[in-house]
Amino acid sequence: MSKEIKDHSEAASQFLKDEQRATWHDETLWLVRAKRDKAAQQIPEWEELREMASAIKAHTLSRLDEYLLQFEAAAKANGVHVHWAADGTEHNRIVHDILQNHNAKHVVKSKSMLTEECQLNHYLRDQGISVVDTDLGEYIVQLRHEQPSHIVLPAIHLKKEDVSDTFHTHLQTEKNNYDPTYLTRSARKVLRQKFITADAAITGVNFAVAETGGIVICTNEGNADLGVHANKVHIACMGIEKIIPKAEHLGVFLRLLARSATGQPVTTYSSHFHKPRDGQEMHIVLVDNGRTQQLGREDFRSSLKCIRCGACFNTCPVYRRSGGHSYHNSVAGPIGSILAPNLDMRKNADLPFASTLCGSCTNVCPVKINIHEQLWSWRQVLMKEGFGGIAKKSSMKAMASVLSNPGIFKFSGKMGRKLMRLIPALVNNKLNPWYKNRELPEPPKQSFNEWYQKNRKH
Ligand code: SF4
Question: Which helix (H) or strand (E) holds 197?
């Protein structure tokens, strides 16, 4: 792991220093989770929908090459330019070339986690092209030079007071005016101007339909539509796993997506784009960037079913208490911890360990990805590949020998109970970052085994 990247537990401890914020973050996301539950309970066929979505995605992944080619042919027939990018660098170069061909210097972008993954903003800025993120949450974090901390709620780590300070500094709004309506209207005024003076619009893609060559983009603010309709060039960037076979499958995914994400029955705008309007140019960039490699990893293949709803974030006790930035990856949370090691095992070896493996993520996932099992599998792969770290490796080895020998197990338990009372530093030390922000219960006087031996006759 490079020096500037803190590991998850180190970064989480920074986040936890502000106890009030950490508690508020935890409670807010739990509220979103509760809204999701309520929305799901209102659909009697919810579980069937999840099954269906999972099956459609599994089928699509099993014939991804065919569906991608079908999509390409249909999109081209609609008059769309289709490009293929093997990785983030190629993706950025393609987007830059298109912009250069149009002499575009100012770009408006609606939310796209793929462009975050490829670090497109930095790349374009270095080429002298300005990019404005037009989703309100993304705009806030962009002004603060931060990464989104959540894939659906990019500024969820910030309070209205933080937003007010940020807008006062960058947009000269009234100091200490924390009124959300005032703040939103102020951002809206600035963004409207950006939309109409931009040279091109970049969007993400939620679903790409192989049979029609069309794409669907879901937003709550209508910013993708505004960007696309106000500009002569539309570049849509998508990971190759966004393909679904038919338009009729959209009904399944659109019903699941918004309910799982925020508890809404549907996203405010589900916009369908099939071809450029007269006088407009439309491009779609299909990006691999490690996805085919993940497809080849049997244990982790189904992570490509993800529709980026964020439900696994909202329910995860570790994410809620450690904040999105502690994951040092464009996609944080439980699913990010499965996707990240595929791209760089060394850099992201800590992430699959940032989980309690409670399985709550798996329970809420609308496409039924076995998230907690994959996190557990990654731990095994990483340990085998030598990315576990010396402390983890030696403590696991020691635990294995204790647990496989009943005599040593009994003796260690006895000693452990005594020593933990006398020397708490044995568990509360640097080698055990998980102790931070936790309190161990008082060690019992006897083990269960000892209690059972004494009480079995009763
Ligand atoms: S893994 Fe499942 S729950 Fe998590 S973001 Fe993806 S689709 Fe949503």
Answer: helix 180-197
Nearest to 311 by CA among 361, 379, 242: 361
Regarding beta strands 207-209 and 214-219, do their DSSP bridges make them parallel or antiparallel, or are they unpaired? antiparallel
The two beta strands, 269-273 and 214-219, are antiparallel
Torsion sign across C-alpha atoms 363, 238, 258, 163: positive
In whole angstroms, what is the distance from residue 120 CA to residue 99 CA?
13
- Return d(Cα 155, Cα 129) in angstroms, integer: 24
| For residues 428-439, average pLDDT | 71
**Is the pLDDT score of 428 beyond 80?**
no
> What is the 316 CA–ligand 1 centroid distance (Å)?
11
Instruction: For 25-47, write each residue's pLDDT tens digit.
Output: 999 999 999 999 999 999 999 99
Residue 433 has pLDDT above 90, yes or no: no
Distance, in Å, from the CA atom of 278 to the CA atom of 50, rounded to the nearest integer, reads 39
CA of 372 to the centre of ligand 1 (A): 12
Q: Which of 325, 370, 333 is nearest to 352 (CA)?
A: 333
The whole-model pTM stands at 0.91
For residue 282, the surrounding DSSP H or E stretch is strand 281-287
Indicate the pairing of strand 200-203 with strand 233-239.
Answer: parallel
Distance from the CA of 257 to the center of ligand 1, in angstroms?
9
Of the candidates 432, 83, 130, 392, the residue with the CA atom closest to the CA atom of residue 238? 83
Q: Which two tokens stand for residue 56?
A: 């459609």
Poorest-pLDDT segment among 105-114, 188-197, 364-373, 448-457: 448-457
Radius of gyration of the chain (CA): 24
Pocket of ligand 1 (CB under 6 A): 260, 306-312, 335, 364-367, 369, 371
Res 2: pLDDT: 45
The 10s digit of each residue's pLDDT in 291-338 is: 999 999 999 999 999 999 999 999 999 999 999 999 999 999 999 999
Over the range 282-307, which residues count as b (16 or more CB within 10 Å of their CB) and which as e? bbbbbbbbbbeebbebeebebbbbbb
